[in-house]
Design goal:
about 120 residues, mainly alpha
């Protein structure tokens, strides 16, 4: 059996200690990386949902506005058609029908658009 002198013991102990430190440091960095990446994934998912909710709210407002304007145009077209029925001008009647048709399309447009997407 070979005797190990004091310097060799220090060197062996130092090498083992360095390897142990490297392993511990590697594990610590891996755990930190996993923690940071999970927090980033959670943060990005939360940020994406906030943006999607904001855009969804804006989309709802635009759809409601278009439908409301369409309903107003339909009423305007009906009023115009009623006035055109009292005259003999066929052009006014056709213009009233066009306005009614355009208003109906505007009123139902958001629902039609959503049915085409889904």
């Amino acid at each position: 059996m070979k005797k190990i002198n004091r310097n060799e013991k220090k060197e062996l102990y130092g090498n083992k200690r360095k390897k142990t430190e490297q392993v511990v440091l590697t594990l610590a960095l891996m755990l930190i990386g996993i923690g940071v990446s999970s927090q980033m994934a959670f943060a990005s998912a939360a940020g994406a949902s906030v943006v999607a909710n904001g855009i969804g709210g804006l989309t709802d407002i635009v759809k409601a506005f278009v439908s409301a304007v369409g309903a107003i145009i339909v009423l305007w077209g009906l009023f115009e058609w009623g006035n055109a029925m009292q005259t003999t001008d066929g052009g006014m009647q056709s213009q009233a029908f066009k306005r009614i048709g355009g208003g109906i399309i505007m009123t139902l447009g958001p629902q039609i658009f959503l049915s085409l997407i889904a």
